[in-house]
Automatic annotation (TrEMBL):
Keywords: Cell membrane, Membrane, Transmembrane, Transmembrane helix. It is found in: Cell membrane. InterPro entries: ABC_transp_permease (IPR001851). It comes from the Bacteria. It comes from Notoacmeibacter marinus. This is Sugar ABC transporter permease. Its main location: membrane.
Length: 338
């Protein structure tokens, strides 16, 4: 019996203990890691990937997967820059265009998967390549910035709106100093909204039911197709929000800036399976997973670890999280036997 209790404890709290241990290790091993400024930098670094990961979580809930989120975010970054710098539109127009683009991409993904029966990985992978190519065509693969050459005798005269840049660069005042960036606040608001939607509403429970047994959910009258399409639209919109915030932080349309968004976001969403022994996609676990990735990379950077080791370490952490989730849970289901 004591062995079973120990196994249950490891499944439920093992990953949180690992997170706390990692924070303590970096606090002693890296000078300045335990400072408030370092904590805020971690939050800022994970805000965008965390927002994308929350969108992935919604698709995982309905037993799907979205590989196009990184491309959607980069497309939103380029679209917002193109709208303001080249078309000279307002910040409001640029944001609306990006959100509509994200919703439309999610709608197309959902229709391909639900109506045309294309496997989710193949549909979203195809969309990813489509968007990567499409976002390069208007500028012939160049980044977008004020004053860039448009032709032999003209340059781009538009600028990033100060209101738009506020989204990525403003910090809210605290008692000591200006610490909390706007993207962190937006990340926390979206995380709370998705957690409440999935955990506290009938719609969220139906989405979990679809992910557990789609056929059974359909037999009791659940509009499975609508919910699955909605999940991909949520993923597209959250990815576009991440792209908007990235553009607002950079102040330019840098086409290469979203390279790691997909991998980091997927890692955060999958690590969330291991938090509190959930063994299923959930918003709280995704937030913890995003923080785990951010703390890990921040600690390694402050310890001057080579940049080329970071992907290896993230992969190792993901494998450990999946072991916590599936192997230990299967042992519990088998009554603690190997």
């Amino acid at each position: 019996m004591s062995g079973e209790r120990l196994l249950n404890f490891a499944i439920r709290y093992g990953f949180l203990i690992l997170l706390i241990g990692m924070v303590l290790f970096f606090s002693f091993a890296a000078n300045g890691f335990a400072s408030p400024r370092s904590a805020v930098f971690v939050l800022q670094s994970v805000a965008i990937t965390g927002i994308l990961a929350l969108g992935v979580t919604c698709t995982l809930v309905v037993d799907g997967f979205d590989l196009s989120i990184g491309a959607v975010a980069t497309s939103a970054l380029m679209l917002s820059a193109y709208s303001m710098v080249i078309l000279e539109q307002s910040a409001f127009t640029a944001i609306v265009l990006c959100l509509l683009m994200g919703a439309f991409v999610g709608l197309v993904n959902g229709i391909l998967i639900v109506k045309f029966r294309v496997p989710d990985l193949l549909a979203t992978l195809g969309m990813m390549f489509l968007l990567i190519g499409l976002q390069r065509i208007p500028t012939q693969g160049n980044s977008i910035a004020t004053g860039m050459s448009l032709s032999a005798d003209s340059v781009a005269e538009g600028v990033f709106s100060p209101a738009f840049l506020w989204l990525g660069r403003h910090r809210f005042d605290l008692v000591i100093e200006r610490l909390v960036p706007v993207p962190v606040v937006i990340f926390l608001v979206i995380a709370l909204a998705i957690w409440a939607f999935l955990s506290l509403t009938r719609h969220g429970r139906l989405m979990y039911a679809i992910g557990s047994n789609e056929r059974a959910a359909a037999l009791v009258g659940t509009p499975v197709s609508r919910y699955k399409i909605a999940a991909y639209m949520i993923s597209g919109v959250t990815a576009s929000i991440g792209g908007i915030l990235l553009a607002a932080r950079l102040g330019r349309g840098d086409i290469a800036s979203g390279t790691n968004l997909l991998l980091d976001s997927v890692a955060a969403a999958l690590i969330g399976f291991a938090v509190l022994g959930a063994a299923r996609p959930n918003a709280f676990g995704t937030v913890v997973g995003a923080l785990f990735v951010g703390i890990l990379l921040q600690g390694m950077t402050m310890m001057n670890a080579p940049y080329y080791t970071q992907d290896f370490v993230k992969g190792a952490v993901l494998v450990v999280a999946l072991v916590f989730t599936f192997y230990l849970s299967s042992r519990r289901g088998a009554g603690g036997k190997v």
